[in-house]
Amino acid sequence: SLIGRLMFDLPEEMGLIAVAVRQTQGKGRGGNVWLSPMGCALSTLHISIPLHSNLGQRIPFIQHLVSLAVVEAVRSIPGYEDIELRVKWPNDIYYSDLMKIGGVLVNSTLIETTFHILIGFGFNVNNSNPTICINDLIAKFNREEGTELKPLSADCLIARTVTVLERLIEIFQEKGPNGVLPQYYKYWVH
User: Fold this and answer.
1) I want to staple 125 with a disulfide (CB 3.0 to 4.6 A). Which of 25, 131, 154, 184 is the partner?
2) pLDDT tens readout for residues 108-119
């Protein structure tokens, strides 16, 4: 709600993101409550997309791009490529096909010819309860493969997610869905 009030008060070329250590009023799809214990990477990002662009004409793809960006944020780090993170349609981040460790919620408003999009995303980084977290997966991988990969921080993964998302949006704007679908399917649970 904070970003929703601020996003129209800033110059359009200025980025806006809110990062939370803990969230007490999280929302999921369909009005579900989103639980956010300590150890999660939690943020809301504001982006603007022109209506008459490739992505503007296919705005529901945003949730898929963000889910893919979260997975890529980890799996694009050298040495972390085989950490078993996946995307589950339409907006979930999964450990293998076994359990959800994160999700994405997108709200958009069309004003004149620009979509103003609020992207909320959260994923378990360093909290083993109530399910599993990314650093548990890294520790498991280290035990099984004899590696010494370092745990990742929520701040690092939020920053990497935003950077990867920016690249995915650029690819989508240039090439349309076919520019990103091969990568999405590579990590798709289904």
Assistant:
1) 154
2) 989 899 998 999
Write the pLDDT tens digit of every residue in 35-55: 666 788 889 899 999 999 999
Homologous superfamily in CATH for domain 2-187: Bira Bifunctional Protein; Domain 2 (3.30.930.10)
| Residues near 106 by beta carbon (within 8 Å), at least 6 away in sequence | 62, 63, 66, 91, 117, 118, 119, 120
